[in-house]
Amino acid sequence: MGGETCGEMGFGASLKKLSNSWKKIEMSVNDAISKSKVGKFFKLEARKTCFTREIRAGTATFLTMVYIITVNATIIADSGGTCLMADCTVPANQTAASPDCMLKPNLGYDNCVSKTKSDLVVATILSAMIGSFAMGVLANLPLGLAPGMGPNAYLAYNLVGFHGSGSISYQTALAVVLIEGCAFLAISTLGVRAKIARLMPKPVRLACGAGIGLFIAFVGLQIHQGVGLIGPDRTTLVTISACAKIDPISNTCVGGKMRSPTFWLAMVGFLMTCYGLMKEIKGSMIYGISFITLVSWIRGTSFTIFPKTPLGDTNYNYFKKVVDFHKIESTFGVISFSHFNRPEVWIALVTLLYVDVLATTGTLYTMAEIGGFLDDKGSFEGEYLAYIVDASSTIVGSALGVSPVATYVESSAGIKEGGRTGLTAVVIAFYFFLSLFFTPLLTSVPPWAIGPSLVIVGVMMMKVVKDINWENIKEAVPAFVTMSIMPLTYSIANGIIGGIGVYIALSLYDLMLGFIKWVNKMRKIVIKEQNQVSNGVESMVEII
What we know:
- By secondary structure, this protein is mainly α.
- The protein has one domain (43-226, 263-466).
- Helix content is 61%, strand content 3%.
- Its main location: membrane.
- Keywords: Membrane, Transmembrane, Transmembrane helix, Transport.
- It is found in: Membrane.
């Protein structure tokens, strides 16, 4: 569970060029900490790791998952949060704002959403910091936690809807997340998590990850939430866009397609990220986001996030603070159980619970396998507490105003760097803590900087399709239905329900055939018993 010794590995290839005296200092520090109470608590020597390696591993994991701060805040802010029609600016020629003011550019409502996004940035950081720290201290595993990709899109676009256009309010959606977290905690405490995970048909379970990946990529390609490549069309529903300008009322393309400066800037960042991932450069995703963001901060350009408008001026003035501790004002503790007893609420609860159980189970076992933590029985040290921490973090996240918190697959970056203990997770939590003081910068990341990372996350989530048996129609069709329905209906729940429904329908033949065989078997047994009774009676008659 560790490979090389700490002295052999040092800080890495870049530090091998340093003097031998520095290496001796490094080794002495590692030895001192390994033998200290901290080292013994995290079992550094037992897991064949050291202090400096754990720091490097935590840094690698943080760099690969820090994108979630702005990505998660941007996605959930698209729901509008607690913003209402009352926050809209009333036009000069009207006495009241129209109901569609939340779906069109409106200074008052846009300001409210901007403040909500700032709240969500802090909420995302806090939930990731608390979850990662708890995972390190309690479970002693090198895993980073943060609001999960997939559930956040489900909450924002399926439940609450874009700017509150869905069937459930933001406050009620957080209540669903709270109940889901409590249910997951109970399931984890009682140890029935694995049994529930096995209830879902295997092809549907495998297809869920790919379907959610397609859904996230679809969001990242759209005009409002991503790079702007895909836009609405009255005839074909969707079409290629990347327009130089979009009419805010009709959403029609103005100025020609594929002429959007922000789209082409996003493509440059997308290719940068892809090249980085090809070369296995740690933090490639954040480098791509950072490049697009830095260029977009330049005012006076066609791709700036700070146009010379009232809203642009307000955002730019806040951005210039650089360092600022933002206090959550609109998302903390707004959970509401009003209108809770509705069919869509219970469907959402079951969907989130299933996705959480399956995603957490798969991620934890994958990370344990990569780190070499699994024993002969398929379990690993800290497994029970890891599920407890994951579920408890979701409860904390719901109170802060974010979607379910999950263990991140990006933790594999730190594990590959040599992280083997919870000290890696504590380092991750420390980096998230530092992020709290740079809210003005983090809230100024544009959607076209986030879009490429969403597409890449979608690509990564497609890996599971190789495990689907495409030669078996009974498995292939439900898997395809699950994957295709999620992005096409803009609903993760619809995909899961559709996949399970088709699987059950295709299983009816086997079930009926099995039932007929069972009936025939029972019939033969009954006939045999009857014959035995008849023979017994005849024998008795002959004796008499």
